[in-house]
Amino acid sequence: MDLIFTxxxxxxxxxxxxxxxxxxxxxxFNKKKRNLRWKIFIKIFGKVLNYYEENLKNLNVxxxxxxxxxxxxxxxxxxxxxPYKYIIIDEFQDIWISRYKLIKNIIDRNNAELFCVWDNWQxxxxxxxxxLNIFTHFNKYFEFWEQVFINKTYRYPQKxxxxxxxxxxxxxxxxxxxxxxxxxxxxxxxIFNILSYKNESEKKELLNKIxxxxxxxxxxxxxxxxxxxxVPNGINFMTIHWSKWLESDxxxxxxxxxxxxxxxxxxxxxxxxxxxxxxxDNYKYSEERRLFYVALTRAKKKTFILTKExxxxxxxxxxxxxxxxxxxxxxxxxxxxxxxxKWELIPRENFAKWALGCNRYPKCNYTIKTISPLKRxxxxxxxxxxxxxxxxxKNKFKDKVMQYxxxxxxxxxxxxxx
Length: 418
Hints:
- About 40% of the residues lie in helices and about 15% in strands.
- The protein is α/β, with parallel strands linked by helices.
- The protein folds into three domains: about 1-140, no CATH class; about 150-330, Rossmann fold; about 345-415, no CATH class.
- Strand 10 and strand 11 form a beta hairpin.
- The protein is elongated and about 90 Å long.
- The termini are far apart.
- Mean pLDDT is about 75; it is low at about 325-335 and about 370-380.
C-alpha cells in the first residue's frame, strides 16, 4: 500500500500520464520478464488512479498536487491574471517538476524575474520527488540567467570548508565552488573527531563522555531513526535529513559503519519508482555523499563521528585520508609511510618501548621500533622527557627517525600549550 501511495504522489507531482509510464518502462526495463511485470503494475495503477480521481471528484476536493497542477494550467491558459513580477525561491534544489512548471508559467505570462538560492551539494531529497535536472541543467529550463556564487559561511571555521570541499567534489557532477568562512572564533582542534568502539556498551560510554564534557547544545545525527534509544538524555536526536536547516555547537554522527542500513545506505527504493523519479547522476552513492556533507557541516565548534572498529564506512576512510593528506601538504611533513606511501608515521608508545607506526594501522602495519638512546632515560618515551633533555637529544642525534619523533613530540607540546 505504501508503494502505491508513493507512486501515486510521484506520478501527480511530476505531471505525468499513463502513456508516459509505458514509454519510460520500455526504456528502463528492456528485459522481457521485468518489462511484463512493470506493465502489469502500470495497468493496476491506472485503475487505482481512476478510482482515486473519481473519489476526489465525488467529494468535491483536490489534493496538494492538484493545487499546483491546476494553478499551472489556469495561468498557462491565461484564465487568470497574476500580478507577480518578482519571484524569490529559497532551497531551490528541492524543487519538483510541477512546481517548476507553475513558476515558469508565471514568468512567461508576466515577464517576471526569478531569484533563487540553492546548493546542489545539499540535494538530499530525491526520494521526496525533487528533480535533480532542473538545477544541474538550469540553462535548459530558463533561457536567460546569471549565476552568482554566495561563497561565505558564518557557521564553522575555514578548516571545515577545506575538508568537506575535498569530500563532496569527488563527484565531478557537483558544481564546484570555493567557500570562505567568516567565522572568526578560534576552532577547537581537532574539529573532526573519529572515535571507534567495539560494541554497543562502548558506544554508549562514548556518548556519555561527550555529554559530560560539553553538557549543552549537542545533537546526535543518524541515518535512520530505529536506534534512537541508545542516545542518552540531554543530547538532541534527529536524522540527517531533518538536520539540514539546523546547527549545533557540537554534533555527534552515529553508526558510520559498513552495513546495508548504515552509511552509505544500500537500502534501495523499489525499482518501480524509477518510472516516476527523476534520473539520478551515475556517480555511486552520490546522494549519500551529499547527505554526509550535510552532516559534516552542522557543527559550529566540533564534530564527533562514531564508527565501529574493523567496520568503518568507506566514507570515514575517505575523510581520514583527506584529513591526513591535508596535514602533510600544509605542514610539509616528510615522514610518509614507506610501505603504503600515503599516510604518516606517528609515535606509538607501548609499555617500555616506543615506536613510529603507520597511522593507517591495521590496514598498513608498518612500524619502526626503537628506544631512547640515553641510559638514564632508557625506558622512558619521549613524551616523558622534560624540554631540556628533549632538546639535548634533538641536537645530539641526527638519526632521521629520531628527528621525526622529536618533531611530533614538540608539535604535541605546542598544541597542548595553546
